[in-house]
Amino acid sequence: MMEENKKHILVVDDEIIGAMNLAQLVRTWGFYDCEIAGSVEEALKQVEGCRPDLIIMDVKLGKDTRGGIEAAKKILTKHRVPIIFITGYDIEELLAEDPGGLTAFLNKPLDLKQLKTTIESFLEKARP
Questions:
Q1: Can you give the pTM of this predicted structure?
Q2: Residue 15 CA to chain centroid, in angstroms?
Q3: What are phi and psi of 14, to 5 degrees?
């Protein structure tokens, strides 16, 4: 049985090994992960199914270099959920496409301390 105080984090990345490693890391930090989503469609389905408290999403999904941002726009029309984007692209360029809401952009390779701090900060802000 899941503890109510543990937060659910959805990892969205089309590179399955990286997504699995990130999900494992999230669990070691004391969070639950939802299923891993590898596409925009899977992400939308998972958000409806597991109602995550936070999403960690790669900006590039599949062949679409901005698929993660498009997925976030769709998600944010129905759900208020913080999203941490991970990317190898220039963050300054991506900020113009920021879908709004509670979002952050972190560069790859990830600084794990920065990621954990960002997760904790967003979950604190998102509390009702």
A1: 0.89
A2: 14
A3: -80, -5
pLDDT tens digits along 23-59: 999 999 999 877 899 988 999 999 999 899 999 999 9
State which residues of the chain have pLDDT below 70: 1-5, 64, 126-128
Q: Give the separation between CA 97 and CA 61, rounded to whole angstroms.
A: 15
Q: Evaluate whether 88 touches 108 at the Cβ level (below 8 Å).
A: yes
SS3 80: coil
Map residue 68 onto helix, strand or coil: helix
**Of 83, 76, 78, 106, which Cα lies nearest the Cα of 94?**
106
Write the DSSP assignment of 17-50 as a string of letters: HHHHHHHHHHHHTTPEE---B-SHHHHHHHHHHH
Annotate 85-113 with DSSP letters as a single string.
Answer: EEESS-HHHHHTT---SSEEEEESSP-HH
Residue whose entry in the numeric block shows the structure tokens 């992400």 = 43
CATH of domain 8-126: 3.40.50.2300
Per-domain residue ranges of the chain: 8-126
